[in-house]
Design a protein that fits this description.
This protein is α+β, with helices and mostly antiparallel strands and about 140 residues long. It has one domain (about 5-100): Alpha-Beta Plaits. About 40% of the residues lie in helices and about 35% in strands. It contains 3 helices and 4 strands; from the N terminus they run βαββαβα. The protein has a 4-stranded antiparallel beta sheet with strand order 2-3-1-4. The longest helix is centred in the C-terminal third of the chain and has 21 residues, at about 100-120.
């Protein structure tokens, strides 16, 4: 069976639980049609490059799929019907990536950076110099 990467963006005002429920629903569509989802990642809410249907942000998600073409067509059809999905793209790939995707790695790096900054604001990390941080 061919491999696919499917990324979709859900509306910014949809709850995270609703988006995760949508991911589970899409996984079920693929498995019901003879395929399997090898990886599903929720990337969180991110800024869009431009407004899409009056949305400036969106919930991003990635699915790696090993399925026949009719299963992917059904997946895309269901997403066109769903009001919460504002954009979706499916790309056929030669092989599926192992491990976290580039989007997930960037999200983890951003979270680590935010944690470091919050520690600095709390005074736990004084930076260069002695304990007072004045040199």
């Amino acid at each position: 069976m061919p491999f696919y990467e499917h990324v979709f963006i859900a509306r910014q005002d949809a709850a995270q639980q609703a988006v995760e429920g949508l991911i589970d629903e899409l996984k079920q569509v693929i498995t019901d049609n003879g395929g399997q989802v090898t990886k599903a990642e929720y990337w969180g809410v991110r800024n869009l490059a431009y407004k899409i249907n009056k949305n400036r942000k969106g919930h991003y998600a990635l699915l790696n799929i090993d399925a026949p073409a009719p299963a992917v067509h059904e997946l895309e059809r269901r997403q066109r019907i769903n009001e919460d999905v504002i954009r979706a793209v499916t790309v056929r790939v030669e092989a599926l990536e192992e491990g976290p995707s580039a989007g997930m790695i960037a999200r983890q790096a951003r979270e680590r950076r935010d944690q470091r900054w919050s520690r600095r604001e709390d005074g736990d990390d004084v930076g260069f110099g002695d304990e007072r941080g004045d040199r």
